[in-house]
Amino acid sequence: MRAFNWRFWQWSLATQILVGLLIGASCGLLVQALGTGARLDAFITNVTAPVGQIFLRLIFMVIVPLVISAIALGVAGMGDLRQLGRVGVKCLGMTLLLAGASVAIGLVLVNVIQPGHYLSAEKSAALEKQYGSAAQEKVTQGGQSVSVTGFLLGLIPTNPIAEAAKIFTAQDDGKALLAVMVFSVLVGLAIISCPEERTRALTAFFDSVFTISLKIIDFAMKLAPVCVACLAFNVTARLGFEIVTTLGAYVVTVMLGYLIHGLVTYPVVLRTLGGKSPIAFYREIQEVIYTAFGTSSSNATLPVSLEVAEQKLKLPPQLSRFVLTVGATANQNGTALYEGVTVLFLAQVFGVDLSLGQQIVVALLCILAGIGTAGVPGGSLPLVVGVLVTVGVPGEAIAIILGIDRFLDMCRTVLNVTGDLVIAVVVAGKDRGGALPPQA
Ligand code: ASP
């Protein structure tokens, strides 16, 4: 039998984060049970809160550069769809269909289960005090934003830089992120429409901005074990066991959504549109599932997905290469579902009632955020924060779910890569690659 490895810095990041979570949450629950006092407040304010903040700030920092570069590049990358003709249109249609279905499942579940309401009004008020939430005010402000035309016009920014600068400030009327996203989509469309030699420099620039934003997320993830311990301590020390049950209800909601999407939506689509047996499909892609779960990264799983698509699913290589590469960044079903549930859950925790119209805006944001989410561990966190701020929930609220995020990330990455393979099967389905242009 192998000896236990005590060197925790050699453990996998996922294990380190889990251990951080358990240590932070148990210490928090312990001090809660012993009675909270002025000393605890001082400890949280001066030690654990600032350490936790380092992680959050690193994530917040990259929201604007990441959203602009990822969406512009994602849309520009879809330019190739045109060359792929019918296959390209099918691919885009399937991406939107699956993302729409996953967000809808998530939103229905979170409205039925209402995990955020497991927290008592008293604890919810304490949270608002802690995070200085102006949540309800913002929602009311958003509600006042008159006509549909006024709202839609507001999404076309006259000054995108000014809109980007509003994110995280009191001036954000709930439209800043959406306006920045609209700007980025337009930039991507403009890139496709101009001659390549004139846009090459800008695309390369966005590519560098994107890579650097991912590196900063990577730095944040390295600090995650310690920061997650501090954030979990803060939340449990202040809210006690109630937050554990509330988070339990949240995890059940997300996991139920993942299961429905993975075991109902995908099989139905595979059977009806792809003419493939779902059981055979899942048997053939096992390796992809294990890799996605272990790495929490669609990008890292890509080589395995490509191999499985060609060797086991027997898809035409040119088609699967295209669909899977675009899909690794632009098709993130599990992430879209998770983002919808998380935003609505935290809104419930903060007592923010979102109208149907506002929930539809959240759904649209999540579908767009799916395109803007990088296929790396924690890639969706900056986007979730952006959507939270848009609906009037303080971005810091993400701290509440950070501790358990890694596990949910492992599971949603499985759904993300499975979704890419489902699309590849459907698109190849009846054509068997026949509609593809000749290989260059
Ligand atoms: N880890 C996910 C992926 O790589 C992205 C995310 O949801 O954070 O697909």
Would you write up a description of this structure?
- The structure is a single chain.
- This protein has 440 residues and is an all-alpha fold.
- The chain has a single domain (12-430), classed as Proton glutamate symport protein (Orthogonal Bundle).
- Helix content is 78%, strand content 0%.
- The longest helix is centred in the middle third of the chain and has 44 residues, at 196-239.
- The protein is globular, with a radius of gyration of 22 Å.
- It starts with 12 loop residues before the first helix and ends in an 11-residue tail after the last helix.
- The structure holds aspartic acid (ASP).
- Aspartic acid binds at residues 296-298, 332, 335, 373, 375-380, 409, 412-413, 416.
- Aspartic acid is lined by residues 296-298, 332, 335, 373, 375-380, 409, 412-413, 416.
Could you give a quick summary of the protein structure above?
The chain has 440 residues and is mostly helical. Helices cover 78% and strands 0% of the residues. The chain starts with 12 loop residues before the first helix and ends in an 11-residue tail after the last helix.
